[in-house]
Design a protein that fits this description.
This protein is α+β, with helices and mostly antiparallel strands. The strands form 7 sheets. The chain has an 11-stranded mixed sheet, covered by helices on one side.
Length: 845
């Protein structure tokens, strides 16, 4: 209710008295319509009878289904057959997350312009041009070939539509009323789009364009020095005997436990389904597509998972942990559920709008995922015969292109038409008239997300898996986005597999690292067989883990580019801790998921302090330096030193690579690890000279200049805008410097998906940072924490949100504070009876 009242007050204040109560104001709905007591936003306020037991008659069911809601509003669905199970899963998910489901699929399909108008058109065009709909169409057709998947998705969609059909305008989620539109029918293409949306979020970690730009500007030797495929301190996912021997003796200083919380590959060519491509080249209202120059910040999207064998646990059986790091949002990206039917009894989180459990556990196994980070997108430079773009050069011959005309419904405007050119390699994403950088002109995208696939079959089988063999069989169907699937079983096995469809690449030419010429030898001519994907079962070290680092050492039989992609800090801390832990309990694992040790700072700060000219410091600078020197490298929320380090580190990187701030450069900064090594070992790098100044800086002077920014910020009581890896809209002002600490400075925000401020949570007070196990930044972090202990037969879970997508519900963000404090809930599973909130019984009509 507080979110609704806050919104109404801010809304009216923004509009003044808004005299035109019955007319639209720009993109806003009529105020009278919003405030109407009979069908406006007041109808969205939560009432006591919303949680009364009820019996519903539903057309489309085969048998009765019971749904028991626990005290956190987690639904425990008990069905007598699979079709009813997924029907009611769809119905219940829509009841609590309908708007979230639909806005996500509209974004993936490039249809936001239909809702918010022309301001979303550029993003919509990008989604269509990278082939989101194209890939979803291929997946939809492929999924329909499997009877299990087809029935599962059809039942799920029917359940969603059954709920939608019960709604009257007064019942619509509040966002529909604010944006003045209505829900539409849910179809299988929307389900496919959800996974393509996840693929787009998690498989874009390739920097072919940026790598090419750097080489063109600075040369190949500088590139190889600053952007190595592997680092000296590599600690990969799959254990290597030489690396294990090297790392076994490592002890990171000040790495201590803080307990403040209290706690199937087939060889296929890219399909070109020309039956749905118009034959003519319509250029109606076409304008050249200008892509965003934004570079994905290092480690914004990441995750941790690990499983420890019984020989390292106190009870002798495995414990599995997972915390995927994603954009923090309200409603949450996940929806917690318990699904039961003959042959399946599974608990975990679903992706709202898709059937089954994506991360979770059953009586026999548990599994979790992290992003693999493997390069599954390549860019090809296309040379057209003439301006008609009807032919392009492939090797030494002209080949015909195919045109797909995309129609965009733009709210308040006439339709917009965009012509997308398809080549043998894929769609041409960036047009010939791109003005910022010629590197991006006429680039075609080849991406595994375009290939036919059926990832839902993976989860259908995982939900029912009993052992290691079932797990391995299930994940063979997973193509994109490539994931590290961690596994543990009640029988005692642990394992990890990096699963996806990966092209075989030429090691000699470093294929896939740079923009490619349109030659057949540069094409994907084969895929790595699934059995050769990196995997490990019951390793001698007693654990498996992944944190977005390299999957293997350099001895792996297949070449894959690794420039600027893989994480270099969280993984080393996790492995170091697990190597040295014994008699592990679930309590230990919960503390570990919330560990705030910052290895980047532990490695970078001594280097920076050694290079700092202390004779140039004033009294305030000396106090700042003293605070930093006494820091134990833990980013606890109530500590000041992490604030100083963050300002220093971000300003240093900005000055070092000031040329890369120009969007026309198409350049990306080296990894944090490479920057530390450069500062530590290279005294003459040309990057020490700031190009925007007349003076010639050196390593020491640029360290001093960036350090001085800390004191300057304190004097102005306004911190310089936090740059990459964070993004902020305005300079960061803090008036209460006496009580300044890391939690207040970081000010984690969990933003509403529609960017409605009153429906967001600002200033969530917690520790962590990127590169820390507790990878909570101002905008990203652990979106679901799960610890499954087969010793206790218990699971501990939490996520930063709530089960309801309704901002007027007490279950909208009720778990945020628990999550921020590093605390957990015990999942109602393994024989634990839920504390009943209310119950629904569904029967066939």
């Amino acid at each position: 209710m507080k979110h609704i009242i806050t919104f109404i007050l801010s809304f009216i204040a923004t509009l003044g008295l808004a005299a035109l109560f019955n007319n639209r104001i720009g993109q806003l709905p009529p105020l009278g319509k919003i405030l109407n007591p009979f069908y406006g936003i007041w109808q969205n306020v939560e009432r006591n009878n919303d949680f009364a037991d009820e019996h519903l008659l539903i057309k489309g069911l085969k048998d009765s289904v019971t749904v028991l809601y626990d005290d956190r509003l987690v639904p425990h669905i008990q069905a007598k057959n699979d079709e009813d199970l997924y029907f009611i899963q769809g119905y219940i998910t829509a009841k609590h997350r309908l708007w979230q489901m639909e806005i996500s699929t509209h974004a993936a399909a490039g249809r936001l312009s239909e809702i918010v108008g022309e301001k979303a058109l550029d993003n919509d065009r990008l989604m269509r041009r990278i082939g989101m709909v194209y890939g979803a169409e291929n997946a939809e057709k492929f999924i329909a070939q499997d009877e299990h998947s087809k029935k599962m998705i059809l039942a799920f969609c029917n359940g969603i539509n059954a709920y939608i059909n019960t709604l009257k305008p007064k019942d619509y989620p509040i966002e529909y009323k604010l944006l003045d539109y209505r829900p539409e029918e849910w179809t299988s293409i929307k389900v496919a789009l959800l996974l393509k949306n996840m693929a787009n979020m998690l498989s874009v970690f390739e920097y072919d364009i940026h790598n090419t730009a750097f080489v063109n500007r600075y040369g190949i030797e500088s590139f190889r020095k600053l952007y190595p495929d592997f680092i000296a301190d590599e600690d990969p996912i799959i254990s290597d005997s030489e690396i294990e021997q090297k790392m076994a003796s490592v002890r990171y200083p000040n790495l201590i436990f803080e307990d403040k919380a209290g706690m199937g590959n087939e060889k296929r060519s890219l399909p070109l389904n020309t039956d749905f491509f118009p034959k003519e080249n319509s250029l109606a209202r076409e304008k050249a597509f200008v892509p965003s120059s934004e570079v994905i910040s290092e480690a914004l999207l990441g995750s941790n998972n690990w499983a420890v064998h019984g020989n390292k646990t106190a009870g002798g059986k495995p414990i599995l942990c997972n915390d995927p790091h994603l954009k923090l949002s309200l409603p949450s990206i996940w929806y917690e559920m318990h699904l039961t039917a003959p042959g399946v009894n599974v608990y975990g989180v679903s992706l709202p709008g898709a059937p089954g459990i994506i991360i979770g556990f059953n009586d026999s196994i548990a599994w979790g995922v992290t992003n693999a980070g493997r390069d599954v997108r390549d860019w090809y430079k296309i040379y057209f015969k003439d301006n008609s773009r009807s032919y392009y050069m492939l090797d030494s011959s002209w080949q015909p292109t195919t045109f797909r005309i995309e129609t965009f419904k733009v709210r308040g405007e006439s339709d917009f038409f965009d012509t997308i050119v398809f080549t043998h390699f894929g769609p041409v994403v960036y047009d010939r008239n791109y003005t910022d950088s010629t590197i991006r002109e006429n680039l075609a995208l080849k991406w595994t997300a375009h290939l036919p696939s059926n990832e839902f079959l993976t989860f259908h089988l995982l939900n029912r898996a009993k052992n290691y063999e079932d797990y391995r069989k299930a994940i063979q169907y997973f193509t994109c986005p490539a994931q590290n699937f961690v596994f543990a079983s009640a029988a005692g096995d642990i394992a990890i597999t990096q699963q996806g469809r990966f092209p075989v690449r030429d090691r000699n030419t470093e294929q896939g690292k740079y923009v490619l010429e349109p030659l057949k030898k540069n094409d994907w001519n084969d895929f790595i067989p699934s059995e050769q994907n990196p995997f490990e079962k019951n390793p001698s070290r007693g654990f498996v883990s992944s944190a977005n680092q390299h999957p293997t050492s350099q001895k792996y039989m297949h070449y894959y580019p690794g420039v600027g992609v893989y994480e270099n800090y969280r993984n080393r801390v996790i492995n170091n801790m697990l190597r040295n832990m014994k008699n592990i309990s679930a309590r230990d694992m919960k503390k570990m998921q919330n560990n705030n040790y910052f290895l980047l700072a532990a490695e970078a700060l001594p280097v920076l302090i050694a290079l700092l000219d202390k004779n140039q410091l004033d009294e305030q600078d000396k106090k700042i330096l003293e605070t930093l020197a006494q820091w134990n490298y833990h980013n606890e929320p109530d500590v000041l030193a992490p604030v100083y380090f963050e300002i220093w580190w971000n300003e240093l990187r900005r000055l070092l690579f000031d040329e890369m701030a120009d969007p026309k450069s198409a350049l990306k900064q080296p990894s944090f690890y490479s920057i530390v090594q450069m500062l530590k070992t290279d005294s003459t790098s040309s990057f020490y000279d700031i190009t925007s100044t007349a003076e010639i800086e050196n390593r020491s002077s640029i360290v001093l200049k960036s350090f001085k920014i800390i004191g300057e910020s304190l004097r102005r009581k306004e911190f310089i805008e936090v740059r990459e890896p964070y993004a902020r809209d305005v300079p960061h002002k803090i008036s209460d410097l006496e009580n300044l600490d890391w939690g207040k400075y970081k000010a984690t925000k969990i933003e509403h998906l529609g960017r409605i401020e009153a429906f967001s949570r600002r200033n969530v007070y917690n520790g962590g940072n990127l590169g820390i196990i507790n990878a909570t930044s101002p905008t990203h972090g652990p979106s679901w924490r799960m610890v499954v202990d087969f010793n206790e037969r218990k699971a501990y879970v939490v996520y930063p949100g709530g089960q309801s997508g309704n901002p007027a519900s007490s279950f909208y963000d009720n778990m945020v504070d628990t999550w921020a404090a590093g605390q957990y809930y015990t999942a109602s599973f393994f024989g634990v009876l839920p504390k009943k909130k209310y119950q629904q019984t569904f029967s066939p009509r």
